[in-house]
Amino acid sequence: MATCYEFDVVVVGAGHAGTEAALAAARLGAKTALLTANLDTIAQMSCNPAIGGVAKGQLVREIDALGGAMGRAIDRTGIQFRMLNRSKGPAMHGPRAQADKRAYHYEIRRMVEEQPNLSLRQETVEDLLVERQCSQHPPFRAVGVRVLGDAVYRCRAVVLCAGTFMRGLLHVGDVSFPGGRMGEPAVAGLSRSLEQLGFELARFKTGTPARLNGRTLRYEQMTVQHGDPHPQPFSFLTERIDCQQLPCWITYTNPQVHELIRANLHRAPMYTGQIRSTGPRYCPSIETKVVRFADRTRHQLFLEPEGRNTHEVYINGLSTSLPRDVQDAMLRLIPGLEQAEVLRYGYAIEYDYLPPHQLRPSLETKLVEGHFAAGQINGTTGYEEAAGQGLIAGANAALKLLGKDPLVLRRDQAYLGVMIDDLVTRGVDEPYRMFTSRAEYRLLLRHDNADRRLTPIGRQLGLVDDQRWQRFETKDAAIRRISALLDTVRWQGEPLSKVLRRPGASWNDVLALLPELADTPAEVAEQIVCDARYAGYIGRQEAEIARQQRLAARRIPPDFQYDLVPHLRAEAREKFSRIRPVDLAQAGRISGITPADLAVLALHLEGRQPARQ
To answer: Which domains does the chain have, with CATH numbers?
Structure first.
């Protein structure tokens, strides 16, 4: 008889999605199990040892505002901090940090091990267990998972965060072999289990560059890149960053490197037909860059340390699956890398993912009640995108068990809302990466105000603890008090709040007239100045938000039969039936849907009869 364990929520996979999912579910009081095939690779940085960036940094701050772990972990383990896009407006700023890869793993593992209601187990999950729901939709309900060795974890909700492990296939030159990461086995059972239930699976590809021995690099031939002298934390709980920062280095490819790559394209899996899956457009392999940008004579490379206690160096910009001998020859031609010793060769990986039109906005699957999915299994790429989905999926798994409405963030509330809406409404045809350009309300969604947007929501749900809430209330009260003061104090005939909107105006202009505000915390002053500068633009965006909210108020029943709507185009009928939007606002965001389609649907909803059984 199989050993059986009982939990409320089971999270499968302990990468960036799985750890945030398990922590969120446990914070909401669910008895949670986090299952991973290897305890030594929790929150593993399989590719670039860095957190954040433009749009990605905004995601991290939103995760933190909702009580997540990623921001606190990188603040404690970062080795270089930089604010990207400083020359642009605050809405485009993106915090980024290099991480000590091993220290980051240990920090996240510590948080997981210390979290009440959370049990960490080394297990390989092979099967999703469901029960059929007679005469109900969805047809199945998740009841647990089966692991290698035939033990069973019974539960009422499962969060699947399998990363690149589902039927993963590694490629180095013409050699390919199963693996979820180099040195770790792939998982085949989960894919079979999902297919047997009727899920559609597809394949994506990603890759990683070689890692080098830093002692063999000639840094004098490269350009040094230092961190910010006054680094800004990711977490709203971190007072300041005091660590000694390590430098990164910049070098470039050259025409000789490009010619070598072109001469060996017949040995590159991406060009021989060995790899058939689509890879990330915005993080291409070096062979793809050489082919796609044939007129470019060089490509920038960043040499980034992987930790304080190792000489291992990551080559950002040189992802490849070329054969080992070509990788060696390529390095010999790059300035500063002529004598480089390879510690790990670059490779590509193909893996199964779950096309996300099969998900609800809560990240619960439409086919199996109580089954949630987060991370690369949903067709995304990046640690930050995975962690954000994990937090939302884990929270919603626990909220479902409590009988509460799910946490579904709107596009005007968070980059997390933009990302999830993009996934479930528009689907993916390549690995999804977050960009500021995807957010139509990005002036509202700055990294600096993530706590003001989301911490009250997290507090209401139970994701935010007393310490974070007290800190937020103190900051918010100061912003309100000083903003009210600036509305009353006048200079040159205008309130100081309007003076701050002028080009070139700064907080120093306020201090010149109100020196008693000299002790204002920097984070409070920054918010007040940003609010003033964007006031006019935000007013216009809020008008559009109000229109979208009116559409969102017009809900569409989950069993709505689109084939009964007269005058609706066949393409629109097919897309509505496939996505099954929850309201008119989401229906209007589906790719290929026209205003006329939306008008026909709206008119029918106003006078519709109850859906046929």
So the answer is: 4-207+352-458 (3.50.50.60), 211-348 (2.40.30.260), 465-539 (1.10.10), 553-606 (1.10.150.570)
